[in-house]
Amino acid sequence: MHRRNFGRLLAAMGFALAAATAMTPAPAIAQDAKTITGGFDVGPGGFPGNFNPLTATAGFTWLSTYYEPLVIYSADLSQIEGALASEHTISEDSLTYTFNLVEATWHDGEPFTSADVKFTLELAKNADSGSLFAARLADIASIETPDERTVVVTLSQPNSAFLSVLAQVMMLPEHALADIHVAEIAQNDWWSTEPVGTGPFRFVQYVSDQYVELAAFEDYREGRPKVDRLINRYFANPAAAVAALKAGEIQFTFAEPDDAKTFEGNDAFRVIEGDSFVVNYIGFNHRSGLWDDVRVRQAVMHAIDREGIVASLFGGAAKLANCGYVVPQFVPEGIEPYAYDPEKARTLLEEAGWAEINGDAPISWLTYYNTPQVANVMAAIQAMLAQVGINVVPRALDTPGYNGIVRGENWQDFPLVYAGLQNGPNPASLNVGLNAAQLPPAGNNIMRVEMPDLTAALDGAMAETDPVAAEAKWQEVCRVMNAELPWGPMWVASRYGVVSSDLVDFVWTPAPGGGPFAAHPEDWDIAQ
C-alpha cells in the first residue's frame, strides 16, 4: 500500500483520539506532608486494582514501592543486582543458588528471614495459589534455610531465566499469610486492606477504583524515605492522566507518543523515552482451528503494512519484529521479513482453503490495551485484513477481564488477540509464553502453542548458561518462530513517561510489565 493510500485509509476510517474522561479525585493530605502523586498504573506497564504480586501481569513499578524481590534489574535493565539478597552465588553446574539476605524489617515490625523466602517461593510455585510463576519456578527441586540469613535453592536442571524470574517474585511475610488456605489466598482481601512488605513505603489505604495511598516506612533499612506519602491515582485513560499532569494534580504519568510530544521544550516537565522491550504480536489461538495451516498465518503477516503503521501511528518510534525480539545478537540473518504483499496474502489464503476454513465469518479479536493509539492500530489492521478476506472484530477489555478469558477454560472465546510479551533484556522470558510445558493454568502460554520444534529450541536455549553459546541457541529460537509463526510478531515500540521538573532523583524506566527495576523510591523527593 502506498503511503498516500495508507493515509487515505486512516482518514476514511475516521481515526480520532478518545477524549479524556472524568478524572479520579485525589485524597486529602495534610498541607505539611511531602507527597508525590502519579499515575503509576497508567498505560501498558500498569495493572490498576491488582495488589497481589503473584497474580500480576504488570504493575510492578508501583508494587515495588512497598514489596521487594531478592534480586532486581538495574534501572537501565542491563544487569541483575541485589535487593533483599545482598549477594548471591551460583554453583559451577548452574544448579545451586545461594542467597545471603540483608537485615530487613516487615512493615508490621517483624524481622524478614530466610523462612519468608522459603514460604514465598513455595507459594509462588504452587499453582493452587493462583500464582503466575508456578510453571516458571517448576525447576526448583529444593529450598534450604541453613540459618536466618541464608537461602539455598537447588534446581532440577539449569535454567538461564531463573534470576530474571526471581526479579519479579516479591517476597511475602510468612507470619501474615501462612494461616490462609492456599486455594483462598489469591482472592483474600488482605492484599488490598493490610498488605505488609519490606519496601520504603507502607500501605495506608485503597479507595476502590480511585487511588492507593502509601506512607513512608520509618524503619526502612536504607533510611526513611525523603517524602511522606506516595499516591497512585487511577485514570480512565492516558489522556486523562496527562490532563491531570498539566493541571499540576500529579507529578508523573505514562503518556502516548503524541501526548508526550506536547511537553517538548517545556522546562516544567521532563520526557522519558525508552524501548518497551515488549514485542507486540497478533496471537493465534492454536486450539481454535482457524490457524492450523501455516499459510493462513503467513497471509496475516503479508496482509499488514507494518512499515506504514509504524510510520503513521507510531511516528517512527517502533522497530519491526520478525520473531520474539529485535536485539541484533539474537536475530539470525536470512529470516523472512514478511514484507507487505496483499496479493501474496490472498494467494496463500486461497491455497490454504480459507473460504472453507472460515470465509468471511467475523473473528473476535481481543486486547487488554485500552489506549487510543492501540485502537487506531487495530482498526488499521482490521481494514488491511478485510482487504484480503479476513474479517476481524476488535474488542478491548480491561486487564482482569482479558486474563479471565485467555487463562480460563473457555479458550474458544478468543480466536485472536493483540498483546505483548515482555521479553525484557533476557530473551528467556519468551519461554513462558511459547513453550508447550507452559500451558495455563500453571504457565502463561495463553495461545496454547504446542510446536515440538519450537519447544525443543526453547528448551535448548533455556538450559544454556554460557552467554556466547546461548546467543546461537536464541538465534535458533528466532529462526523457528519466524518460520512457524506461533504468533504474528509486529513490532517493539518506544514508551514514554512525563515527569514534573519538581521531582528530584525520580527514576522511571519503560520496563516490560512495569519492571521491577532499581528505582530507589526512598530517594525520590519533590520541591515544595
UniProtKB/TrEMBL annotation:
Q: Which InterPro entries is this protein grouped with? A: Peptide/Ni-bd, SBP_5, SBP_5_dom
Q: Does the keyword Signal apply?
A: yes
Q: Which GO terms describe its molecular function?
A: peptide transmembrane transporter activity
Q: Does the keyword Signal apply?
A: yes
Tell me which positions the record assigns to the signal sequence. 1-30
- Record's Pfam families? SBP_bac_5
In what residue span(s) does the Solute-binding protein family domain sit?
80-427
Its principal location? periplasm
Q: Write out the GO biological process terms.
A: peptide transport
Q: Which SUPFAM superfamilies match?
A: Periplasmic binding protein-like II
List localization entries: Periplasm
* GO cellular component entries: ATP-binding cassette (ABC) transporter complex; outer membrane-bounded periplasmic space
Keywords of this protein's UniProt record, alphabetized? Signal
Q: Which residues form a coiled coil?
A: none
State the PANTHER family in the record.
PERIPLASMIC BINDING COMPONENT OF ABC TRANSPORTER
Q: Which family does it belong to?
A: Belongs to the bacterial solute-binding protein 5 family.
Write the protein's name. Answer: Peptide ABC transporter substrate-binding protein
The species this protein belongs to is Devosia geojensis
